[in-house]
Amino acid sequence: MSDPLRLLPWQGPLWRLTAQAIEQERLGHALLLSGLRGTGKRAYARVLAAALWCKTPLAQHLPCGQCDDCRQVLSEAHPGYSALRVEEDKRDIAFEAVRGLCERMGMTSHDGRSKLAIIDPADALNNNGRNALLKTIEEPPPRSHIVLISERPLALPATLRSRCQQLRFAIPARGEALAWLAESGAADPAQAAAALDAAHGAPVLAQQFLNDQSLALRQTWRAALLDLAAGRSEPLAAAAAVGEAQAQPFLRWLYGWLLDLLRAGLVSGGGGEVETLARTLPHRALDRYVSEVQENLRRLEFNAKAQLVLEAMLIRWSALVALGRRT
Ligand SMILES: [Zn+2]
């Protein structure tokens, strides 16, 4: 695990803007950190929190990671810091938690210092929570900052989004990502590269794959889709092989893989099985399928029958590939 109060190497340009905002005291009362999973949004939010309070900041307002305030941010015990997340076995962030947070943000801190709250992920706020938050953001208490983190910023109401300073986290250059993985302990370059592919270029997610050994699973899924595409297997058997317990991780992975496929279809060259597939699939039908996957991910969050969803999506995949072969 890398030092959690260190900026990730590809975040430098984004940080320069944040440092300037801190410097000129115009850091937003509401910030929206958006971008694909595994690009380091959470790490960035913690660095930002510590930067507000650090007693011995480094250049560019970066927190030292050593002083009392930095340590309290690291252990989530800082008096000015709060974080809202989805509790285990819950679907969304409880309204009571949002109301409590808004009340805390409204109170003047005893030492007059800033307050910062992280809501992660912000798309897990329910309607009541969003409305309560919107009120606080519309009339923000002085020296308060609410940091919304989301992989799906478009799932947030436009009224909320439009009031946030937006920070977008992009996928870093491949070389930079691989160098960071090596530096953070990935011993085998080939495995690091495979993990980065499986993570669609998102380094923090790739690191997670390397740490929890789930890379093999993703390679199995990739092979299953290619087998279906080549007519070497049947959708129902493939769905059973994935298993309902893995339905959600599978669909999340599938979503990213399809986006890669869409991108691969736009570039010429590359003779691999995936590139060939990308060129034969009708672009608009593939695009529609991506939306269906996203829609079904939502349905799974709301307790749709996982095995049925898997079967439906893999039957649709086979149909999509068949369509590609005909055209
Ligand atoms: Zn410090």
Description:
This protein is α/β, with parallel strands linked by helices. The protein folds into two domains: 9-169, 3-Layer(aba) Sandwich (Rossmann fold), CATH 3.40.50.300; 214-326, Up-down Bundle (Zinc Finger, Delta Prime, domain 3). Helix content is 55%, strand content 8%. It contains 15 helices and five strands. The protein has helices spanning 12-23, 41-53, 68-74, 95-106, 127-138, 158-161, 174-183, 189-198, 203-212, 215-229, 235-242, 247-266, 273-280, 283-301, 306-326; strands at residues 30-35, 81-84, 115-119, 144-150, 165-169. It has a five-stranded parallel sheet with strand order 2-3-4-1-5, sandwiched between helices. Helix 12 (247-266) runs antiparallel to helix 14 (283-301). The chain is globular and about 70 Å long. The mean pLDDT is 90. It binds zinc ion (ZN). Zinc ion binds at residues 54-56, 63-64, 66-67, 69-70.
Question: In short, what is this structure?
Answer:
This protein has 327 residues and is α/β, with parallel strands linked by helices. The chain contains 15 helices and five strands. The chain has two domains: 9-169, Rossmann fold; 214-326, Zinc Finger, Delta Prime, domain 3.
What small molecules accompany the polymer chains?
Answer: zinc ion
Q: Count the strands?
A: 5
Distance between the termini: 48 Å
H/E series:
HEHHEHEHEHEHHHHHHHHH
CATH class of the largest domain: Alpha Beta
Helix percent band: 55-70%
Mean pLDDT: 90
Shape: globular
Strand numbers in spatial order across the main sheet: 2-3-4-1-5
- CA radius of gyration is 22 Å
CATH overall fold name of the largest domain? Rossmann fold
CATH architecture annotation of the largest domain: 3-Layer(aba) Sandwich
Q: What is the number of independent domains? A: 2
Q: In this structure, how is the largest beta sheet organized?
A: 5 strands, parallel
Give the DSSP E fraction (strand runs of 2 or more residues). Answer: 5-15%
